[in-house]
TrEMBL record:
This is Bifunctional UDP-N-acetylglucosamine 2-epimerase/N-acetylmannosamine kinase. Keywords: Allosteric enzyme, ATP-binding, Cytoplasm, Hydrolase, Kinase, Metal-binding, Multifunctional enzyme, Nucleotide-binding, Phosphoprotein, Transferase, Zinc. An N-acyl-D-mannosamine binds at R513, T525, D553, E602, H605, E624. In the N-terminal section; belongs to the UDP-N-acetylglucosamine 2-epimerase family. Pathway: Amino-sugar metabolism; N-acetylneuraminate biosynthesis. Its EC number is 2.7.1.60, 3.2.1.183. The lineage of its organism: Eukaryota, Metazoa, Chordata, Craniata, Vertebrata. Zn(2+) binds at H605, C615, C617, C622. It catalyses: UDP-N-acetyl-alpha-D-glucosamine + H2O = aldehydo-N-acetyl-D-mannosamine + UDP + H(+); an N-acyl-D-mannosamine + ATP = an N-acyl-D-mannosamine 6-phosphate + ADP + H(+). It comes from Aotus nancymaae. The active site is at D553. GO terms for biological process: UDP-N-acetylglucosamine metabolic process. The keyword Kinase applies. GO terms for cellular component: cytosol.
Length: 758
C-alpha cells in the first residue's frame, strides 16, 4: 500500500501502544498508592489545603477541589480564601466558591488598598503575618498553590517555613513580566509540581527540580473547557451583552496592568478602548485584576464613559462557567490576560494579545500578538484582521484529563519521605576561580579564515595580537571542510586554556556572499567549491557552545582596519583587498555596509573596460579580471608558454607552478612585457578606486593584501590623472596589518564584547 494509506494505521498502532503503556503506568501507580496508604496508616487521609486568592486561580483550582471532594476516603479538604476574593470592588468572588458548595474554613483579609507597588508589598507582608495562625490550626499535610500572584508567594513562603509540603500548579511557564520572577520563586519553595506543557516541564528540570516530583498533567481548567456543551449559550450572551447580540458578533476585552511599566500599561489600555469604540462592536469589558495600576485603568474606563456607552458592558466578574461560553462564541477576545493565550485556544476563538505581559507564553495559531501596541491604528488593524475568524481548536495546555492525573499524583505522595527538598544540579567542573592565572586570563577570540587555498584558525587577543595560528590546506568538499573547521576550532579552544586565554566567541571570514545575521554563506566564489547555502553558525555554536559571527572576507578586512588598523577612529573609509581575487569593505558613519542583499562592497567586480578579459563572475572587464592574483597568474603563464617571462637571474623549477610572484619578479628585473601587464593591472585597479572616490567620497582608501605594495604608486598616478579635483586629496595607503582577514573575524567577536553594535 501507499505511504498515505499506511499513515492512519501507524497512528492507530501508536495510540494502542500509548493506551497500553498508560494502563500499565496507572496500575503500578495504584499499587504504589496502596503501599503508601499502608505506610502512612490505613485510616490516615491526606489533609489537603487549597488556598485561592482571586477569580483567575479559582478557575484552575476548582476542578481539583471537586475531584478531591469526590474521594473523601482518600482526602480531607480545607479551603482558605484570601486576596481580592473578599473585596467588593472586585466582585466579592468568594461567593462563587460558596455557590459551588465548598465550605470555606478561613477567610483572610490580606489586601492593603492602594493598587500601587507599595500596596502589593504590604499585602504580602499582611498575609505573612496572618497565615501562620491559620496553618497552625489546620495542620495540612500538603498545600496546593496556583500560579504567580503575589498572594501565592506569601502562601508558599509561609508553608515552606512551617514545614508544610507544597504542590505548585502551573510552574515552569514563561509570560514576560514580574510574574515570571514570582512563579519561579514559588517553584523553588514547592516540593511537588504540576505543569501544563512539555516546555514548562523542561523549564522545571532546567531549574534543577527533581523530575520524579514533576507531573505533566495539563491545565485543570481544560477539564471543564473541553467538556463544556451548554446548548443554551445564547441566553448567557443575552444576559451579559443584551438581547440584540448574535454569536460571533461581539468582543470580550480583559486587560491588566503590567507592574514593571504601569504608565505604559495605562496608555495602552486607553488606546485599546479608543480602538474598540471606533470598531463599533458590542464589547464586554471585565475590570482588571488588583495589581498596581488597576485603579488608574478603572479611572480611564470611567473617563471615557465605558460603563454608560451603548456598545459596552463593563463588569467586575463573570462566573467561570458563563465566561467559558462567552469567549467560546465571541468574534474576538482582546487584552493581555493569560486566559486569552491559554484557555481561549480550546475554542479556536481569535485573540489579540497586547503588549509584553504574555510575551513568553506558548500559543495556538488563534493568537495575534501586538507587542508594541503604541497606536490606536495598530490595535484597530489587528481587530479588522482577527474579528470573526475561526481557528482550529488548540490543546497545547491540556487534553481534559488533568484532574484524574493530579489526584493520582497526590495519592502517591509519601509523607514519610524527608521534607527537605533535593535539587538536581548538573555536574560542575572544579572551580578554579581563585587561581591567579584564571583571574588574569587574556580575553580573546577564535578567528577562522577560509581562503581559496588555505584554512586558518587563530587565537586573537583583545589588543589584536595573534597568540597562536594554525594552518591547513582547504579541502575541496563540504564535508571534509566543515569537519576540519570543527576539528581545528576544538583544538584551538583547548589550547587557549593552556595559553590562559578566555575565548569569548568565534568569528569566521570567508569568500563569497554571506548573510551575517543568520551566519549563512549564500554563494561562494569558484575558489571554494561546495560552499553555497552553508550554515556555519549552527555546527560551530553547537560544538563549542560559543556565539559565532560570519562575514565576507572583504568586510572582515574593513572591520580589522576599523579596530586595529589605519581606519581606527575614521567615520568613512574603504578597504580593497588585492589577493587571489579582489574584494573590499565599506565603513560608513563608523558602521560596516552590507547592502540590502548582503552584496555591498563587491569592489572587485566594478567594470573598468567594456571589452576587457573574462571575469570569474561571468562578466568582462572587471577589476578582478585585470588585477587579481588569478589574473596575473594567467598572464604569467601566457608569457612563460611563449618563453617571454624569464629574464637573466630568473628560474622556475619544473615542479613549481608559474604565478603572480614570478611576473612581479620579472618586472623588477626589467622584463618590459611583465612591466606592461602590471601597469595595466594597476591602472584597472586605479580606475576602480576613482569610481569609489566619486561614489562614496571616503576620507581614506586602504589597499590590503599581498599585491597592494606593487599597485600603490600606479593607483595614485591614475587618481591624479582621472579623478575630480575635489577627491584628489583623499589619501590611499597600504595596510600595515599582517592578517586582516583573521583580525577582522576576531573583531566581530571583540567588538561585541565591548558593546559595539555589529
Amino acid at each position: 500500500r501507499s505511504r498515505d494509506q499506511d499513515h492512519p494505521v501507524i497512528i492507530l498502532i501508536i495510540k494502542f501502544l500509548f493506551c497500553q503503556f498508560q494502563e500499565l503506568y496507572f496500575k503500578n501507580l495504584s499499587k504504589r498508592n496502596k503501599q503508601i496508604m499502608e505506610k502512612n496508616g490505613n485510616n490516615r487521609k491526606l489533609r489537603v489545603c487549597v488556598a485561592t486568592c482571586n477569580r483567575a486561580d479559582y478557575s484552575k483550582l476548582a476542578p481539583i477541589m471537586f475531584g478531591i471532594k469526590t474521594e473523601p476516603e482518600f482526602f480531607e479538604l480545607d479551603v482558605v480564601v484570601l486576596g481580592s476574593h473578599l473585596i467588593d470592588d472586585y466582585g466579592n468572588t468568594y461567593r462563587m466558591i460558596e455557590q459551588d458548595d465548598f465550605d470555606i474554613n478561613t477567610r483572610l483579609h490580606t489586601i492593603v488598598r492602594g493598587e500601587d507597588e507599595a500596596a502589593m508589598v504590604e499585602s504580602v507582608g499582611l498575609a505573612l503575618v496572618k497565615l501562620p495562625d491559620v496553618l497552625n490550626r489546620l495542620k495540612p499535610d500538603i498545600m496546593i498553590v496556583h500560579g504567580d500572584r503575589f498572594d501565592a508567594l506569601a502562601l508558599a513562603t509561609s508553608a515552606a517555613l512551617m514545614n508544610i509540603r507544597i504542590l505548585h500548579i502551573e510552574g515552569g511557564e514563561v509570560s514576560g513580566t514580574i510574574d515570571d520572577s514570582i512563579r519561579h520563586a514559588i517553584t523553588k519553595l514547592a516540593h511537588y509540581h504540576v505543569c501544563c506543557t512539555r516546555s514548562a516541564e523542561q523549564h522545571l528540570i532546567s531549574m534543577c527540580e527533581d523530575h520524579d516530583r514533576i507531573l505533566l498533567a495539563g491545565c485543570p481548567s481544560y477539564d471543564k473547557l473541553l467538556s463544556a456543551k451548554n446548548k443554551d449559550y445564547m441566553s448567557i450572551i443575552r444576559m451579559w451583552l443584551g438581547d440584540d447580540v448574535k454569536s460571533k458578533d461581539y468582543i470580550v476585552a480583559l486587560q491588566h496592568p503590567v507592574t514593571t511599566d504601569i504608565k505604559h500599561s495605562i496608555k495602552m489600555f486607553e488606546l485599546t478602548l479608543d480602538a474598540l469604540i471606533s470598531f463599533n462592536k458590542r464589547t464586554l469589558v471585565l475590570f482588571p485584576n488588583i495589581d498596581a495600576g488597576s485603579k488608574e485603568m478603572v479611572r480611564v474606563m470611567r473617563k471615557k464613559g465605558i460603563e454608560h456607552h451603548p456598545n459596552f458592558r463593563a463588569v467586575k466578574h463573570v462566573p467561570f462557567d458563563q465566561f467559558i461560553q462567552l469567549v467560546a462564541h465571541a468574534g474576538c477576545m482582546i487584552g493581555n490576560s493569560s486566559c486569552g493565550v491559554r484557555e481561549v485556544g480550546a475554542f479556536g476563538t481569535p485573540v489579540i494579545n497586547l503588549g509584553t505581559r504574555q510575551i513568553g507564553r506558548e500559543t495556538g495559531e488563534n493568537v495575534l500578538h501586538v507587542r508594541d501596541a503604541d497606536t490606536q491604528d495598530k490595535i484597530l488593524q489587528a481587530l479588522h484582521l482577527q474579528f470573526g475568524k475561526q481557528y482550529p481548536c488548540s490543546k497545547i495546555y491540556g487534553d481534559g484529563n488533568a484532574v484524574p492525573r493530579i489526584l493520582k499524583f497526590l495519592k502517591s505522595i509519601d509523607l514519610q519521605e524527608p521534607l527537605q527538598k533535593k535539587f538536581c544540579f548538573p555536574p560542575v567542573k572544579e572551580n578554579i576561580s581563585q587561581d591567579i592565572d584564571h583571574i588574569l586570563e587574556t580575553l580573546s577570540a577564535l578567528a577562522v579564515d577560509l581562503g581559496g587555498t588555505n584554512l586558518r584558525v587563530a587565537i586573537v587577543s583583545m589588543k589584536g595580537e595573534i597568540v597562536k595560528k594554525y594552518t591547513q590546506f582547504n579541502p575541496k568538499t563540504y564535508e571534509e571542510r566543515i569537519n576540519l573547521i570543527l576539528q581545528m576550532c576544538v583544538e584551538a579552544a583547548a589550547e587557549a586554556v593552556k595559553l590562559n586565554c578566555r575565548i569569548l566567541g568565534v568569528g569566521i571570514s570567508t569568500g563569497g556572499r554571506v548573510n551575517p545575521r543568520e551566519g549563512i554563506v549564500l554563494h561562494s566564489t569558484k575558489l571554494i567549491q561546495e560552499w553555497n547555502s552553508v550554515d556555519l553558525r549552527t555546527p560551530l555554536s553547537d560544538t563549542l557552545h560559543l556565539p559565532v559571527w560570519v562575514d565576507n572576507d572583504g568586510n572582515c578586512a574593513a572591520l580589522a582596519e576599523r579596530k586595529f588598523g589605519q581606519g581606527k577612529g575614521l567615520e568613512n573609509f574603504v578597504t580593497l583587498i588585492t589577493g587571489t581575487g579582489i574584494g573590499g569593505g565599506i565603513i560608513h558613519q563608523h558602521e560596516l555596509i552590507h547592502g540590502s542583499s548582503f552584496c555591498a562592497a563587491e569592489l572587485g567586480h566594478l567594470v573598468v573596460s567594456l571589452d576587457g578579459p573574462d571575469c570569474s563572475c561571468g562578466s568582462h572587464g572587471c577589476i578582478e579580471a585585470y588585477a587579481s592574483g588569478m589574473a596575473l597568474q594567467r598572464e604569467a603563464k601566457k608569457l612563460h608558454d611563449e618563453d617571454l617571462l624569464l629574464v637573466e637571474g630568473m628560474s622556475v623549477p619544473k615542479d613549481e607552478a608559474v604565478g603572480a610572484l614570478h611576473l612581479i619578479q620579472a618586472a623588477k628585473l626589467g622584463n618590459a612585457k611583465a612591466q606592461s601587464i602590471l601597469r595595466t593591472a594597476g591602472t584597472a585597479l586605479g580606475l576602480g578606486v576613482v569610481n569609489i572616490l566619486h561614489t562614496m567620497n571616503p576620507s581614506l582608501v586602504i589597499l590590503s593584501g599581498v599585491l597592494a605594495s606593487h599597485y600603490i604608486h600606479i593607483v595614485k598616478d591614475v587618481i591624479r590623472q582621472q579623478a575630480l579635483s575635489s577627491v584628489q586629496d583623499v589619501d590611499v595607503v597600504v595596510s600595515d596589518l599582517v592578517d586582516p582577514a583573521l583580525l577582522g573575524a576576531a573583531s566581530m567577536v571583540l567588538d561585541y564584547t565591548t558593546r559595539r553594535i555589529y
